[in-house]
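Re: the request from the purification team.
They wanted to know what the chain is likely to look like in 3D before they choose a buffer screen. I agreed to run a prediction and write the result into the notebook, where they can find it.
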Amino acid sequence: MTIGSVLEQLKPDFPDISISKIRFLEAEGLVTPERTASGYRTYSQEDVDRLRYVLTAQRDRFWPLKVIRESLDALDRGLTPPGEGAEAVRPQPPRPAEDPDLPTAASLTRSRRLQLTRAEIATAAGLDDETLTALETFGLLRPDESGHFGEAALAIAHAAGSLAAYGLEPRHLRPFRTAADREIGLVQQVVRPHRGTARGGGPREDPTAEVLRLCIALHTALVKSGLEQP
């Protein structure tokens, strides 16, 4: 858009706006339109929205340019803009989005009553006997007292089989078991004082599943954070 088109968009809400005002805000670094090869300014819709934010902050909130500049910087960094009526509120850090792929506390403690033989889990996961033996050797698969494998073991076997396509062998996956065991040990240590009898005499609600859910959420966030690093 040309500066004239921008002026037409803003005039209905800001009758006092002028080309010189827009250029002043540009000079203050609050909006940075692109320029053509011949030097003419061109504005995007994002530039118009930015100008509208600046003008609204001046008119309705009486913010000085320094505060507006700080708020624009916050918006550029992903903070949440103030809602309607929040005249004295600057952009705020957003609440973390719920990850739909994370398990719930209930799902961590609820599983099907599944008992698979060694041959059945190998067939279900598409693993050969050598790979299955390696998964047992490195502690990733652990049969129960009857020698059967449950639903969680099936998920582990499937994941290991899929990772094998990328060159990850069972010996490479041992750190995952070590980390999981340490995490479980930490959770058990943390929740132990919260078990027992409540004040009213009844049993306390076991917080193990919820603490585990939070640990998994932390682990996932750490991995995502690491992937965001250059």
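For the purification team: Residues 56 and 222 are 38 Å apart (CA to CA).
Please add any questions underneath this entry.
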